[in-house]
Amino acid sequence: MKHSQRPKDLLLISLFLLASLAVVARHYSIPSRPDASFTHYNAVLPHRGASLSYSDTVDLKAFATSIITGVRDNYEKARTLLAWLGTHFEWKYTDYQNRSVQEIIARKGGNCFEMATVYMALLKELNINYRAIAEVNIQKPDEERGQRAAQMVKEKGNKVSVFGRQHNDHRWIEVYDDHTKEWVPADPTMNIIGFDQWLKARAWFGERHTINDEFSREMIVPFGIFVVSKDNKAEMIENRTTYYLVDRLDALYDHKLSGLTSWSKWVSALQVLSKVAKNAFEGKDNLQEYDGQISTLAKIYQDLRQEYRGLSH
User: At 26, phi and psi to the nearest 5?
Assistant: First the structure.
C-alpha cells in the first residue's frame, strides 16, 4: 500500500465497519455503537479474513473496554460485545486444535466453542457474570458423519459421542441480567441474546434467521442444555433442558403447546435423552447408542409442529 493512499483506505475501512455493525444491530435489535472508539481494536486486529501472528498479544481489558465505551448497564455491555464479535469474527469449522484466547483472536474467529471462549474472556474482563453452556441438538441424518463419529468414539471415548449421525454438540453462554434476576442465553456464533431471540432461532416452528444461517440451519432443535462447571469443564452442574424446551417454549406459544397430543411425549423424551446427553459430556454414556431414541424425538418435534399449525387453521 502506498503511503499516500493509507488515510483514505483507513477511512473507508472504518466506515465499512461502522455500517456493518449498524446493520446487524438494527436486524437483531442490538443497539449500534456510533459513539464507540474503534481506534484501539482496529489498530490491534486485522480486517475480516486476515490473521494476526500468534506472537502478537491483545490487551483483553483494553479490547473489551473499547468496544463498550459509553455503555453502563452490564446486560447492554454484553449485548454490545456480542454484536461486535458477531460482526467481526467468523465461524470456522472444527479442526480439533486447542487454542488459547489470544490465538482465537488472532484467527478472527473459530468454532462455537472458540467463539464462546473469547466471549467469556471479554465478559470476565468487564466483571459481567456469565456461565458456560454445553448443548446437544438434533441434526439431519448423515451416514458418513455417523461413521466418522463412531470411529472417534473408539479412539477418544464417550465424551466425543455428543457428535453423531443425527446429533451434534454446540457451545454458548448464559449472562446474568441484573434487572430480571435471571440467567439469559447469549450465543456469539449466531449473534443472538435473550430468550425471544434464542427461542426463535433454535426451537420455534417458524422461519429461523441468525447472523450465521449456514450454521444454524443444520440444527433442528436441542435436546440437552447444561451449565458447565467453571472448575471442571467435564462436569455438567445443572440441566436447563426442561426450562428452555418445555417451560420457555410453551410460554412462547401462550401455553398452547402443552395442550397438544404430542406434548407429553415431547416432555418425557427430553427428560430421558437429556440425562444421556449429560452423561455423554461427562464420559459416562455413549450417546450414539441412543440413535433410535433421537430419531423418535425428531419425529415427536415434527408432530408438535404439525399439531400446532392445525390449531392455526
Answer: -65, -40
